[in-house]
Amino acid sequence: MIAYLEPRSPYRPWLIPSAVAAGDLIITVLDTDPRTVLCVELMGPTRRGMVLEVVEESRLTLPPVPDIEAALSIPLPTAPGRIDDDAADRLLEALSVYEERFGNPPSPFTDPHRHDRPLSSAHSARVLLESGGLCAACDSRVNLRGAAARERVHVHLADAHAVDEQWSDRSAALCTQCHKAMTGGGFTSFVEYRFSLQPTCPRCQACRTQEVVYGMPPGPGWLDDKPWLAMGGCAIGPDSPRWGCGVCGYHWHYNVDRRFGDEDDPHAGDYVVAHLFNFDGRRPHMHPPDVEDPHEMQIGTLIIEDVDSAWGGYTRYAVLRDDGCLRELEPDTIVALGRVDS
Q1: pLDDT tens, position by position, 237-263
Q2: Strands 229-231 and 209-213, how do they pair?
Q3: How far apart are CA 19 and CA 82, in angstroms?
């Protein structure tokens, strides 16, 4: 699977019959449990004149071979080899139907996203294929080149669950850093770990924050396996929320272009909630907060002061928490929870 996602990978697991000619169709089957169909490729002559190249490819979603054999009464070979033309035509037609109907329960094969099936290497391969080589937690691209690629990608398999449970665990492909953070943090659920990366709700403190995303979704069901995201429509206004709580329904926003001084902006003495200064590393030349959880929301009384420094004057925003701790804040994340009359 790594060799399929990254053509520059040194892994070459393909076993292709020597009698392949230009114009032949090759169906690649993964040796998973159960065996699954990876792709259908049309071969053509290469300019180098030595090996054949793929000139057209149909990328499937790993239909299980036993489902194909049962539905079509076609026994597929367990070793590289040819199948007769009639069986091949029926097989290609069935695979076309499968690919076109993916996203709904596909026919004639079973739904590849059913969660009541036993976890297997076929399930791992499907998770890795659908990741496209991106980490499900941080969205960074995993380096799949080189001989150590197998150690750079980690597949987390969720336990079987009902698909209508909103906060159920999801299977995911992770980079090494996120895998270490998840296991080191004691998380056994990827969904729980992913929610831990979000700010907590400033109203109810629940760890079920959903980031609101705007624009046209990439496709139907895009958010089905991403309960930490919520669609906010196509229009973005000055008060469009950035975050929402999936428990109490509270919404709030940070606007990076926001400037203080308007009537509705927080004032010194207001009871506010905000993020720590440089909580998300937005200032790469400065150190992140030296605390256990930089994303923890800070709640308390707002302090605003003008500061003179060798680099010029600036305004500093801080919060005096109820426990007496003083913490510097990122100004554009401050949200007033209560107004103190002056």
Answers
A1: 666 788 888 888 888 765 433 334 444
A2: parallel
A3: 10
